[in-house]
Amino acid sequence: MDGSIEMEITATFDLAQLPLILAGPILRRTEAQSVSVWVALQTAAEIQIQVLPAQGNTVDHSQPLLQGTATTIALGKSLHIALITAQPRSQQSLLPGVLYAYDLKIYPRQNTSHASPVDLGDALQSAALPRVCLSYFSHGLPTFALPPEDLNDLRILHGSCRKLHDHDLDALPIIDQMIAEAADRPNLRPHQLFFTGDQIYGDEVADPFLWAIVTTQVEQEGE
């Protein structure tokens, strides 16, 4: 075991050091009249989504095209997930060859007044972690494009099993680079990503993750 891994294992695991959003947001499905985003949070919450017209570094918040609300489902004391689906406000439909952005507002359950939602940027940072940028544009919001009308322009990415503690280089940054190079060109961006491997190596967990899982379970059982 090398020193870097050993240091991670002996460090104190504290959920307070992590942001409100533990995983995501992940764009799960897009259609002309439906956009679904998955997210995992530390606490129970109501989440609102808006799909907005985007053009370069400009997003129009005054006229959301699609919107929706979902309540998280508890999978554990500190793990709450939701799939939030936005649907049209009127008869509008999203179009191929056009760039769109989406925004989330999170209302934790303890905030009964719903007066102070947590925005997406704040939900991704904590005292121990800097602010995370999800966007390739200055507006700071994640963007997407529907598959193009001409299937010859469709760009599909494929990956297999993902082993986080493998010693080879991580290939996912290549996708980030591909999107960055075509961020403002909807038909040149990757449109779909498929992971078709048979597992995530759940039976061969990296030592730091295994330690964190076991430690958290013991602490919760002792409460």
- Structural class call reads alpha+beta
Overall pLDDT metric: 81
Total domains: 1
Uncertain stretches of 5 or more adjacent residues: 1-12
- Give the CA-CA distance, first to last residue: 32 Å
CATH class: Mainly Beta
Give the amount of beta strand, in percent. 25-35%
Report what the structure shows.
17% of the residues lie in helices and 34% in strands. It contains four helices and twelve strands. The strands form two sheets. Strands 1, 2, 3, 4, 5, 6, 7, 8, 9 and 10 form a ten-stranded antiparallel beta sheet that branches. Strands 11-12 form a two-stranded parallel ribbon. It has helices at 3-10, 120-123, 172-181, 207-222, and strands spanning 21-31, 34-41, 45-55, 58-59, 66-71, 73-76, 79-88, 99-108, 118-119, 143-145, 156-159, 192-195. The chain is globular and about 50 Å long. The protein has a single domain (3-217), classed as Immunoglobulin-like. Helix 3 links the parallel strand 11 (156-159) and strand 12 (192-195). The chain is an alpha+beta fold and 223 residues long.
